[in-house]
Amino acid sequence: MTHKRYRRKTYWNQPTMGWWERLYLPEILRGLGITSWVFFRNMGKWMTGRKGALTTYYPEERRRDYARHNRGKHVLTQRPDGSPQCIACNMCATVCPAKVIEIEAAFDPDDPAHPKYPARFEIDYSRCVFCGLCVEACPEDAIRMVPEVPNLPSGQRMRMWIGKEELLTWNPQRDVAKPYPPKGAA
Ligand code: SF4
Ligand code: SF4
After folding, report:
1. pTM of the model
2. Exposure winner among 37, 123, 130, 148, fewest CB in 10 A?
3. Regarding predicted confidence, which is higher, 9 or 146?
4. Longest C-alpha distance within the chain, in Å?
5. Tell me, what's the pLDDT at 147?
6. In terms of residue numbers, what domain contains 169?
7. By C-alpha distance, which of 93, 118, 96 is closest to 108?
């Protein structure tokens, strides 16, 4: 009676190697071929001035052609009277995977429609991963992201904390997908 050799997979989609892969050297040569092809393709693009060949050397070089839906700077949207639309519910800070949003809620008894507001709203850009979850979680459309990235490189992390005042003035009207103030608003 013959027993079929059976190897348990370490993970569910672990590929099985054929004899060609088991020879090892052909696959090494194939990998070197792919690397060389990409190298010479990029070199050709660079020499002929075409796009897509090189990394941008930020911050010395700045890109201007961000994709329309690139997740860059955050903006805090404003009500027509200029106050932040944020109601300090803390949902963005709770969902943030990097825990970089800090909000200090305050109470305004003179504004019964929006009594709760953020006295302090700060984002630590040295740790933000630009995932956009804060924007998705906001129930008030009070935080958005515009395509441009913040101009914040610094050797000191504390300089990369951005506060409410700056977040309120980072060109919210430039989010053309969702113009602000909304159409028809006073
Ligand atoms: S983009 Fe992501 S990491 Fe950055 S503040 Fe929003 S939720 Fe946090
Ligand atoms: S930005 Fe939105 S989610 Fe964050 S505290 Fe303000 S209202 Fe809540």
Report:
1. 0.69
2. 37
3. 146
4. 89
5. 85
6. 74-174
7. 118
